[in-house]
Amino acid sequence: MDLVTPDLGLLFWTGIVFCSLLFLLAKFAWKPILTAVNDREKSISDALELAEKTREEMKSLKAENDQILKQAKAERDEILKDAKSTATSMIDDAKNKSKEEAQKIVDAAKDSIRSEKAAAMAELKTHVAALSLEIAEKVVRTELSSDEKQKALANNLASDINMN
């Protein structure tokens, strides 16, 4: 039972060692340990505070990035809209110019056809007139082939002149 009930001397010396250890720890170790613990606690709280600030900054940066992205998309949409309207107007202008050019070509072709038609008509009239003269000449020759017919025609013409 000696192990369960200690001697008075052992208790005394254990108490003195304990008190001296407690005094030494309080005198020399508690302050540095508490300072280290306090410094550690302060650095942890500063790190948590910095992390929170960083998180807030990241949120604000994300919001700014989202806003910039929205503006960029809006500008892109505006540029695309302008490009489409410009392309449409250019296509319309090209269509109008091609229609005008086609109309000019058609008008020039019509004028050319008219002038060629007039030239062909004039040539046809000349040719018909020449043929008519040839036919008339042949008819007159056959009619006036004899002297009697010539005299009768001359008398007929002289009588027409006298009447007028």
Written account of the structure:
The protein is rod-shaped. The protein has helices at 8-143, 147-163. The protein has 2 helices and no strands. The longest helix is centred in the middle third of the chain and has 136 residues, at 8-143. It has 164 residues and is mostly helical. The termini are far apart.
As a whole number of angstroms, the C-alpha radius of gyration is 65 Å
Low-confidence runs of at least 5 consecutive residues: none
- Overall pLDDT: 89
What's the number of helices? 2
Instruction: Give the topology string: H per helix, E per strand.
Output: HH
The tally of beta strands, per DSSP, is 0
Largest sheet: none
Instruction: Tell me the count of domains.
Output: 1
What shape does the CA trace take? Answer: rod-shaped
Helix content: over 70%
Structural class: mainly alpha
N-C termini distance: 189 Å
Q: What percentage of amino acids are in beta strands?
A: under 5%
Lay out the secondary structure.
Elements: H1 8-143, H2 147-163
Main attributes of the structure:
164 residues, mainly alpha, 2 helices, 93% helix, 0% strand
Quick summary:
With 164 residues, this protein is an all-alpha fold. It contains 2 helices and no strands. The mean pLDDT is 89.
